[in-house]
Specification:
Layout (H helix, E strand, L loop, with lengths): L6 E6 L3 H12 L23 E8 L9 H4 L21 E3 L29 H14 L4 E4 L6 H14 L2 E4 L8 H9 L2 E3 L9 H14 L4 E10 L2 H5 L7 H12 L12 E8 L6 E11 L5 E11 H21 L4 E2 L1 H7 L9 H11 L3
Parallel strand pairs: 1-2, 1-4, 2-3, 4-5, 5-6, 6-11, 7-8
Antiparallel strand pairs: 7-9, 9-10
Length: 368
Amino acid sequence: MAMKKEIRVALVGVGNCASALVQGCSYYSGAGIEKPGLMTASFAGYLPEHLVFATAFDIDSRKVGRDLSEAIYSAPNCTARFVSSLGPLHCPVVPGYEIDSMGSFPRDTPEHRRFLPIDNPYRDAAEARQAVVGELKRAAAEVVVNYLPVGSNQNARFYAECALEAGCSFVNTMPALMARDMGERFRAAGLPYLGDDVKSQVGATIVHRALVSLFRDRGLPIKRTYQLNVGGNTDFLNMQEEPRLESKRRSKTDAVVSQLNASTLDDDGVYIGPSDYISWLDDRKVCFLRIEAEQFGGIPMEIELRLSVEDSPNSAGVVLDAIRAARVARDRGLAGPIADVCAYLFKSPPEQADEAVARERFRCFAEP
C-alpha cells in the first residue's frame, strides 16, 4: 500500500502570513489547483492539500490555547479572509518563547492592532527550548516555518536551534540573515534550510528587481533609485523601532543591487526600505518606487511606480513552494541551503543569481 502523502508543518508565529498560508491550503485543496493564483500547482508531485499543520507557536493571549483554524482569524490579524471559515485543523497553538519579537508599541495603540502577550511560562531559555523541541517531536513536525516579525533576530536563531535539535527542516521567511552560518549547520545535520527573507509573489522587491534588470539589459545606466513602503499590519507597527530595520533594509537592498551594475550609481544612489505605519491600511502594503537613469546620448529619464497589494497573501504562495521544496530536498537526500530554490524564492539567499537564471533552476527543481 502506498504511503499517504503529507508534509507536517510547524508554524512559528500565527500572524497574517500564517493566516494567508493556512487559508490558501484550504482554498487550493482538491480540484482547487485549477484556480488562478498559485505560483506552482504541483511541486514534484506535492499539492497544497498535502500540507498538514501539526503544531503552531505564538505568544498572543488571543491565540494560545486555540485551534489554528480559529487563531488565524484572531486579532491583531487583519489580512483578507478569502476562506470565510475552516473546520477544526486539530492543530493546537502552544506558548512560544519571546526574546526580541515585540517592539515597544506606542501607549495609545488600540488592543486590536497590537500584541497582547501571555505571561512567560518558562523559567529560562533552556526550559523553553526543551518545551519547543518536545512539542516538535510530539507533533512529528518535518518543516518549521519561521513567521516571526522583522527584528526578531535572536528569536529566529532560537527556533532554528530548536528545529535542528528536533530534526526538522527550516524555512526562514523573515530577514534574520542566517542562511550562511545556520545553513551550514543544517547541512551538517542532513537537513534542508530555505531562506532568508521571502520574496512576495509580485511585490516591491521582485518588481524592483525586474525593472532594474530591464534597464540593465537595455543599456540604460541607473544613477539613483528608491523604494518606500507603507502598511498597517503588526510588522509595520513593529518596524517603527529603527534598530529593528537594519537587516530588513540590508536584505531588500542587496536583492535589488545584485541585479544592476553598481558602478553607474551615484555614491548614495540607492535607498530601499520600509517607511511608515498607517493603521487603516491594515494588511495592505503600498510601495512607491522611482528609478532615474540615462538613455541614449546621456539624456536623463525616470520612471515612477505605485504598487498596492494585500501583503500576506502575496507571500503565501511563495512560502507554500518553499515548504514543498524543503520536503522534496529531503526526499532527494539534499541538505543545507537549497541553492536552486533559495535564489528564486528569497531576497537574501546564500548566493544571489540573475532572476531569469534563478527561475529556470527553480522550475527544474520543482519537476518530478
